Amino acid sequence: MNRTTVERKSDREVVVIRTFDAPARLVFEAWAKPELFKQWWVPRSMGMTLRSCELDVRTGGKYRLVFGDDPANVMAFFGKYLDVVPNQRIVWTNEESGADGSITTVTFEEKNGKTTLVMSELYPTKEALDAAGTGAQEATKETFGQLDELLASLADTAARS
Asked: If DSSP codes are grouped into helix, strand and coil, which group holds residue 39?
């Protein structure tokens, strides 16, 4: 079983690492294609609904994710993609937190058909990271497990065709 590690690298940065048993191309697609992304991004244990998923994964593109069962009480995450190199890297802003929003960088490194994903969240200040807490990083362990399931399913489908 692949283990997800979460480490606070500095006063402003948290890094999450996980190796997936899939090529970088497939792992990247799971981050870039809305129909795949929405299958793994929301932790099942939270019982949340992803109401909409808009991803324009290219340098200069934007994203918007809206969660919640009650249309009058939704939570949105949004920002823009600063740098996208297909199958290698995605960098985006997290603008829902205003000036305290982090910059997230995800890299995909493939070796022998497996992909090591490194996700770094860099906050503008120590206080912004402290205020964000560890909930999102801990939830990432569950969502990356869900991504593992999706990637295995995609590999099974590809093997059968």
From this structure: helix
Angle at 161 between CA 44 and CA 28, to 5 degrees: 45
- What SS3 class is residue 8? strand
**Phi/psi at 40 (5° precision):** -130, -20
**Which residues face 77 on adjacent strands?**
65
SS3 state of residue 135: helix
Contact yes or no for 31/90 (Cβ under 8 A): yes
| DSSP code, position 102 | -
Q: Is 16 exposed, middle or buried (0-12, 13-18, 19+ CB in 10 A)?
A: buried
Contacts (Cβ under 8 Å, ≥6 apart) of 132: 97, 100, 102, 121, 123
* Residues whose CB is less than 8 angstroms from the CB of residue 93 and which lie 6 or more positions away in sequence, other chains included: 79, 80, 82, 101, 103, 104
Rounded Cα–Cα distance for residues 28 and 73 (Å) = 31
- pLDDT per residue of the chain (161 residues) written in tens, 0 to 9: 568 898 999 999 999 999 999 999 999 999 999 999 999 998 888 888 889 999 999 999 999 999 887 778 888 999 999 999 999 999 999 999 888 899 999 999 999 999 999 999 999 999 999 888 766 767 888 999 999 999 999 887 766 76
Secondary structure letter of residue 2 according to DSSP:
P
